[in-house]
Amino acid sequence: MTFTGTSDEVGRVASTFADFAEAHALPAPVRRSMLVALDEIVVNAVTHGATPGASGVRVTVEGSLEPDRLVVAVRDSGRPFDPFALASPDTTLSVEDRPIGGLGIYLVRQMMDEVQYSRRDNQNEVVLIKHLGTLDGARSPKESA
Amino acid sequence: MQVTTRTQGDVTIAAITGSLDSASSPVAQTALDAVVAGGARKLAVDFSGLDYVSSAGLRVLLGTAKQVKASGGALRMFGLNASVREVFEISGFATILPVFPGEGEALQGF
């Protein structure tokens, strides 16, 4: 099962995925975690990938639902940029001292089970993977391959 | 996303419903700015109708908390679902902004 969305509008990616999640009755925690990750990654692609003076970055999102996991690939035509190369923020600083940069990618790392970045065919590709069985405990842990 | 406000005593309760992400956060920021500009000093944010929050939403809450604090007030939050709570805990916001289970607890002693 797959879905594909193409947009330079972040909100449209979210609604496309939300429709997919509803159609396949994804558990709410999985759906919500992926919506957070998608928001962070798509915003990141649009803000960091844009070439000054050029038109907007084209972002394509393609997802597939496998028996035990949800895999979503976000591809953009922007400049090479590995979001996971960023340093993690200091989350122990007080509310007054806290810079917000880097927090979104940190959330993605923590909320997904696996993340991948690659540069291929002049595109950035981020793959987000969320296991379906890690939340409800109904499935046994996946054996390491 | 929708922000609805009501008052109870001297506490202003702002309920954020829907999703608080990059698409909706500018609207939420404008709404909460207006609440603070309107004189709210004790602000309780009701998340019981909030589906999920991303870092863009956290930025709005951080900005609002700073504004309220700068004018001598305080911000409390309640009604977080498991996913919203997870984002607050991972980001560290749960330790710097007071989180309460429900409205009763949030308003007690506020």
How would you explain this protein's 3D organization?
The complex is a heterodimer of chains A (145) and B (110). By secondary structure, chain A is α+β, with helices and mostly antiparallel strands. Chain A is built from 3 helices and 5 strands, in the order βααββαββ. Chain A is globular. The two termini of chain A are 23 Å apart. Chain B is of the alpha/beta class and 110 residues long. Helix content of chain B is 44%, strand content 30%. In chain B, a hairpin with a 2-residue loop joins strand 1 (2-8) and strand 2. The model of chain B has no long low-confidence stretch (mean pLDDT 95). Classes of the chains: A alpha+beta (145), B alpha/beta (110). Chains A and B meet through helix 1, helix 2 and helix 3 of A and strand 4, helix 2 and helix 3 of B.
Shape of chain A: globular
Distance between the termini of chain A: 23 Å
CA distance, first residue to last residue of chain B = 27 Å
Strand content of chain A: 25-35%
Biggest sheet strand line-up of chain A: 1-2-3-5-4
Number of helices of chain B: 5
Mean pLDDT level of chain B: 95
Whole-number mean pLDDT of chain A: 80
Q: Provide the low-confidence segments of chain A as ranges.
A: 135-145
Approximate helicity band of chain A: 25-40%
**Helix/strand/pairing class of chain B, anyone?**
alpha/beta
Strand content of chain B: 25-35%
- Helix-strand sequence of chain A: EHHEEHEE
Q: Count of DSSP E strands of chain A?
A: 5
Oligomer: heterodimer
**Helicity level of chain B:** 40-55%
- Low-pLDDT segments of chain B: none
